[in-house]
Amino acid sequence: MKLESLHDLYVEELKDLYSAETQLIKALPKMAKAASSESLREAFQEHLDVTKQQLERLDQIFEGLGKSPKGKKCVAMEGLIEEGSELISQKKDIDPVVLDAGLIGAAQKVEHYEIAGYGTVRTYAKLLGEDEAAELLQETLNEEAETDEKLTALAESEINLEAATESDTE
User: What's the pLDDT score for residue 1?
Assistant: First the structure.
C-alpha cells in the first residue's frame, strides 16, 4: 500500500494491530497451558477474553472506515510470540516457577508493544477527526495498560519472588 497521507498510515497501523491481536488470540491459550501458576493461567485466560473484545472494536473501526482489516502481517508480534514459544518449548528443562516468570516477561513485552501501537493510532484518530474510533482505541489502550499492571502485580507479589527463592535453593 502506498502511504500518501496520515489517513493511509492510520489504516496501515490499524491493520498491523488487527494482525497482532489475531496472532495473540492463538498464542494466549498456549501460554495459559504452559503456566504452572493458577493465577497466571487465569490472567492469560482473562486477557484472551479481553483481546477478543479488542478485535471486535477493531472490526467496528474498519467497518466505519469502509476498509478491510486484512492484508498485513504484524512481524513484530510474530517475533514477540516466537520468543514466548521458544521459552515454552524448553518447558521440560525449566523450573515451573521460573517458566512462569519468563512467561510474564514475554507477556509484558507484548503488552508494551500493544500500548505503543494503540497509543499511536489513537493519536492519529484524534488528529483525523475519527472521534468514535479514538474512544474505542482509548478503551483498548486502557485495557492493555491494566493488563500490564496486573502482570506486574502478579510478578512482584508472587511469581518472581517464588522464582528468586527457587534460584536461591540451588
Answer: 62
Q: What is the pLDDT of residue 117?
A: 98
User: Which of 51, 155, 163, 167 is closest to 105 using CA atoms?
Assistant: 155
Q: Over 60: is that where the pLDDT of 167 sits?
A: no
Q: For the packed helices 6-34 and 75-89, what is the interaxial angle rounded to 10 degrees?
A: 10
Report all structural domains of the chain as residue ranges with CATH numbers, in order of start. Answer: 6-168 (1.20.1260.10)
Q: Please say if the pLDDT value at position 169 is more than 80.
A: no
Residue 84 cell numbers, joined: 514466548
CB 120 within 8 A of CB 104: no
Question: What are the CB-based long-range contacts (under 8 Å, 24+) for 95-100?
Answer: 95/163, 95/166, 96/36, 97/36, 97/37, 97/159, 97/162, 97/163, 97/166, 98/163, 98/166, 98/167, 99/34, 99/35, 99/36, 100/35, 100/36, 100/37, 100/40, 100/159, 100/162, 100/163
